Amino acid sequence: MIKTQRRGFITGGTWCVDNNRMVTHWPDEDGIAEFIEEERHGGGSGCNFALNIKRLDSAMPVETIAVVGDDEGGRFLRSLAEGAGIGCEQMHVTSDASTQWTDAFISRASGRRTHIFNAGAAVALTPDHFDFSSTTARYLHLGLPGVHKQMDAPWHSDVNGWVTVLKRARAAGLKTNLELASIKPERLAELVRPCLPHLDLIIVNDSEIGALSGIDTLPGGVTDIAACQRAARHVLENGAMDIVVVHCPVIAIAVTRDGKVFTKPSTQIPRELVAGANGAGDAFAAGMLYGVHEGWSVDDALTLAHASAAASLRSLSTTGAVEPWRKCLELANEWGWRKAN
């Protein structure tokens, strides 16, 4: 019997309806800001990564596993998946809760975003929704710890459901990656540290790597690149990953199991082209994992990761401005690259 060669991605976890709203600035409590514009789109790690991969390469096989409500929001998300050619046979529908939604407020003044969400059907997701018996995908992209109540809780003999799913995926022959959410550092560490022995790689931002390692990577609110590198090594040593990637707006760092360290400054996209940073981390992860999947060098994968992230900045939505991978690289080279310090 000829074993089918694995190719492509299967995403698992968060699909939500994003209401992306541009405001003049994010106000203090009891303050006021002016509304400018809005877009409705899909959001969440499972949605964003799947759509981004399809935008980078429409021929790449992509499937997803999620729970949505039996409502207009759920039908909207399913239509996005089907329209992009994403396999959604395991996009489960529940009538017990509404589809998860997020109001994402993007500050025109700073470019930063603030998320306010309703978990809705995300509460229903458990490891029993994940069936890897028939997939021929090579990578599982899973998320988001801290957002799915039952996945966050102990599951049978495992400390949480994330560990259960990662173990099942690896046993089925998939490689694994975990997307994180911006939750309290202590809670992030509690949920994710037990997952590290069951991951093949992890792609995180400067704050998240600090939370996982216990190292202060943002002293005074400024990214300490050397501290990020130390933190990445610490996380690598405490997990099974072949590579740990840390990104921030100005640079990305990759530390590999064989002790090599790679750095790549980011793209200098013109400020007037930036609509917001919502989803830039997802676009970075998609570019990085696409390059790894295709057997590119770490340097080349980091280059595409930055390029796809920069392209995504041109839209209020999380995925609307990501281009095919060659076009992303062309745009990045046209915009130019930051110089290494």
Tell me what you see in this structure:
The protein is an alpha/beta fold. The protein has a single domain, classed as 3-Layer(aba) Sandwich (UDP-N-acetylmuramoyl-L-alanine:D-glutamate ligase). Helix content is 32%, strand content 24%. It has ten helices and 13 strands. It has a five-stranded parallel β-sheet, sandwiched between helices. β6 (101-107) and β7 form a beta hairpin. α1 (45-56) packs parallel to α2, α1 crosses α8 and α9 crosses α10. It is globular. The model has no long low-confidence stretch (mean pLDDT 94).
Nutshell version of this structure?
This protein has 341 residues and is of the alpha/beta class.
The count of domains is 1
What oligomerization state is this entry in? single chain
- Poorly predicted regions are none
* Strand elements, count: 13
Biggest β-sheet description: 5 strands, parallel
Tally the helices.
Answer: 10
Cα radius of gyration in angstroms:
19 Å
In sequence order, what are the helices and strands, one letter per element?
A: EEEHEHEEEEHHEHEHHEEEHHH
Q: Level of helix content?
A: 25-40%
CATH architectural category: 3-Layer(aba) Sandwich
Basic shape: globular
Strand order of the largest sheet: 5-4-1-8-9
Structural class: alpha/beta
CATH class call: Alpha Beta
Strand-residue proportion: 15-25%
Compile the SSE list and pairings.
Elements: E1 9-13, E2 16-23, E3 35-43, H1 45-56, E4 62-69, H2 72-84, E5 87-94, E6 101-107, E7 113-118, E8 139-143, H3 149-152, H4 161-171, E9 175-178, H5 185-192, E10 201-205, H6 206-213, H7 225-237, E11 243-247, E12 251-256, E13 261-265, H8 280-293, H9 298-312, H10 325-335
Parallel strand pairs: 1-4, 1-8, 2-6, 4-5, 8-9, 10-11
Antiparallel strand pairs: 2-3, 6-7, 11-12, 12-13
Helix pairs in contact: 1-2, 1-8, 5-6, 6-7, 8-9, 9-10
